Structures are given as C-alpha cells and as structure tokens.
Amino acid sequence: MTPEQVWELDRSELLDVRATGRAGTYRLRARDRVGAVRLGRGPGRVRLSIEPKIPVDRLMYLLGYAPSRLQWQDQQVDAVARADLLPAVAHAFNRAARRALRAGPLFGYRETEDTLPVLRGRLRASAQLSRRPGLVVPLEVTYDEHTVDIAENRLLLGAARRLLRVPGMEPRLRAELQGFAAQLDGVNSLVPGAPVPAWQPSRLNQRYQPVLALAALILGGASYEFEDGRNVSVDGLVFRMWQVYEDFLGRALGEALVNLVGGRAEPADRNHHLAVGRRHVLKPDLVHYLPGASGVAGPAIVVDAKYKRGFRREDLYQMLAYCVRLGLDDGHLVYAGGRPGVVRVPVPGKEIRLHRHVLDLSLPQAELSSRVDALAETLARALP
C-alpha cells in the first residue's frame, strides 16, 4: 500500500495496521466490524472489504433479529447462494423492493403546514395571529395531503441510494436499484445525519414491511463510531458484529423463553440502575419477567451476550452487579465461543451462580435455532 492508503486505513479505526518489515507491505487485522467501504481520495483512496468469520447466510439470519425491525427469514434464499455479505444484503433488498413496488408506490396521508390564499383543512390560529395580526389572507393552515412522500417511501428511497454507493455492486443489480429510485419520483431524499423517519406497521403498508426491515438495516450500517465517540458517515455499509450478536440473542432467546415459560421478555432492558437516584444505568441484553408470589411481574432471568471466545473477569463483575441489583441467584453469560462453566460467588446468606454458556454461530440456521431453544430450556431449569 501507499503511505497515504496506510494513513487512511489507520485513521479509520476499522482495523489494526502493522508494518511487516517489507517496504509497502502491511498486515491488516479487522476489529469488530464487517462490511465494505471506500476511504480517502487521490493516492490515499482505498476500498476496504471485511468479511464475517461466520457464513453469510448465518449473518443474514442474525441481522434479521435486529431491534425495531421485522424478521425477514423469507429473504434467506437469496443470501445462501452468495458468499459476500454486501451483495447478499443488496440482492435481498432488491428482491423485497420488487415485491413491494409491484403494485406501484404506496400513498398515504401526511399532515402538512402551509400558507395559502384560501382555507384548506384547519386554520392554525396561533400562527395566524402571531405572523399576520389583523390580516385576512394569506392563511396559516394545516391539512392532510394524500402523497407519495411518506416515511415508508423515504426509507425505501434512502436504502436504494445508499446501496448504489456501496463499492463493488454488480451492474445489473445497480440498474435495478436505479429503477426503484426512479419509481419513487416525488419522494424527498433523507437528510444526511437526520433521524430515520418513523413508521408503524399497519394493514395499509403490509406489502412494504419486509423491505422496510431491510431498509432500516441498510441505513443503520451507513455510519460507524470512532473510539472517542465521534460518528462518521461512510461510502458503503459496515456492521458491528457484537451489536448484531446482542440484538439477535436478546430477541431470539426472549421469544424462546416466552414460548417456554410465558412472562415478558425485555431485550436491551434499560429500566434498572446500579445506584440510588437512578444513576449508572444497567445494560443487560435480556431481562425476562415472570409473575411473583404477589402476582406482580418482576425480573426472573438476566442474560448478557458476549461476542468473544473466552471469558474475562470484568464479564463476571458485570453479571454479578446485574444479579445483586435485580435480586437474582443466577446470571447467564452467553459467549460465541469457548467453554461453558459456572462460577459460584458466596455472598452473605446465599450463593450467586454465574453461568457461562456457548452458542456456536457457525451452525446451520435450523440447528442454531434449535440451540437457542435448548438454551432457553437450560435457563428455565435454573429458575427457583
């Protein structure tokens, strides 16, 4: 690589760059992200592709459990035949978008504020009085407009345009994505850095729901965070593997526990704090609630996902804090590799057991799903 390329890769913080002792030759080691991006300009321009360690179809399965998104296992067929992550995501989106737009773009009603010479909809009295006191026209009004420029179409257009900027997209797929963007004429583009538009599943947008799940995934991978907290948009897509694993485990294991023992699963529960005054929020990946003796639901199972092969002492300290604060005798750490075990911690009047479980993400999808169900049964047996 050129010195400029080395500098761009090093400052990106996406991987570790080490010299080999040979001029212009370096050893690269990925950190915790996968995907493809373009970095730099001129002699520093470089295309970086980071492949996941697990098969792409398994990663697509995990991504389908990301929070606030619908599951889209029906898109797995396209992913299985493709070895690269980004083409797999793009082909799945292309297929879902084709289905969604088969009957044309979705229309909906959007509340619009405007200034008009005649009354349409409702008069905004406070705005009229403050902006035009004593004037009859023009009028400050609010009305519901039947339009194609709705949140669902903005998400769809934003995802299509984001994929068009991903490096290495094959020409046929690029042409189809451009066709989808053309179908959404009249839809405003998403503002870079602005929050993604919110939408709610309904009977009216049912045909859009699978592609909206993918669109949220694609738009969520359009930036990454530096170690110092700065966030940068990228010309490509990147996914943080430990976040993908946490999202998957919280949702999939929560669903399995609800089916097995009932109650309520809360992935990424942020309702508990370590200190008085609601200070130092606790961040377990899953808390499962069951009715107690009084009939009131309370924490019964706490789980934390660890995307690593071996455990560290700080993992035990973290889970011990969860157990003490939630009043539980058992805490569960679920690793992506390593060996299972139990650490018994004596505390006044009782013993707290910190369980280490292992979930092999390289297993075929059906077997991985069975292992999640088996893990739920193991956790249920630890209930008092």
Protein traits:
384 residues; alpha+beta; six-stranded mixed sheet; three-stranded antiparallel sheet; 11 helices; 18 strands; globular
Strand tally is 18
* Alpha carbon gyration radius: 25 Å
User: What kind of assembly state do the chains in view correspond to?
Assistant: single chain
Distance between the termini: 59 Å
- Major beta sheet, specifics? 6 strands, mixed
Question: Which structural category fits the helices and strands?
Answer: alpha+beta
Beta-strand content: 25-35%
Secondary structure tally, helices: 11
Q: Tell me, rounded to a whole number, the average pLDDT.
A: 85
Reading the helices and strands in chain order gives HEEEEHHHEEHEHHHEEEHEEEEEHEEEH
Low-confidence parts lasting 5 or more residues at pLDDT below 50? 67-83
Strand arrangement in the largest pleated sheet: 11-14-15-16-18-17
Helix content range of the residues, please? 25-40%
Instruction: Give the overall form.
Output: globular
Task: Give a brief outline of the structure.
With 384 residues, the protein is an alpha+beta fold.
